[in-house]
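So, can you check this one?
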Amino acid sequence: MRIDAHTHGDIEKLKGSPADYVAQCRKQGIERAVLIADPEPCRKAYEAMPDFIIPVPWVDIDAVSVKEIGECFDWGAKGIKFIDPQFSYGDPRYDPIYRTIAEHGKVCMFHTGYLARGLDEFGVPKKPRPTDISLMRPAAVDCMARRFPKLKILMAHFGNPWWEEAWKITWSNPMVHAELSGGTAYQRSLLMWREIFAPNGNLDTQTLNKVLFASDIVIFEHPGEEGFQPYFEFYDKLLDAVKAPEELRERVNRGTAMELFELD
């Protein structure tokens, strides 16, 4: 079984009962899923499927208040997701937000790297200026992680296309985790991934211990194998390529997510 650390979706589009949906996902091999959505839809999905949904609402980092973030944690949010900032993630103006998340012991999840065009239709907040992906580099996460060394951090998409930079930041910061969902990570050569996670055949357990399985698919509408399967295959091939032992595979597939989000 696996825990998917990155999904999106609107439970209002679910056909059938929540119980049937969860059973269908678990039949496909998904034990639980991190849902990234606006706070209210995220809360509703969590209330309908509390033993399946791991709620991580996304908010506009340039508009949200620390009070609003605290309110998310009051109803059960396990973390907060940020994307498309007006300033670098490492800019000190965001420190009150990061401090609030750290004080609650929750996960700070960042979109890192390239941001696809037209994502406003999926609820990504519109900004008054064009997206600048350089503000979302893994290096920006490193900058703020140095100021908040106890903050639990999850880098989505492994910094695509700054793969090497993402590896270095994950390897160097004890509290920085990463996942390889969506985008083009699963289309990259396994030779590249083997050299990142097992350079010259030497398995980098320090980094892989902090990598989580994730897909970035839209759930509720597409719960079946056709959505998850490409990511099952990618992660399995990657772990095969680096010759990861069974206990490390278990951590990538579910164990690290259990620890990071403090799940029972």
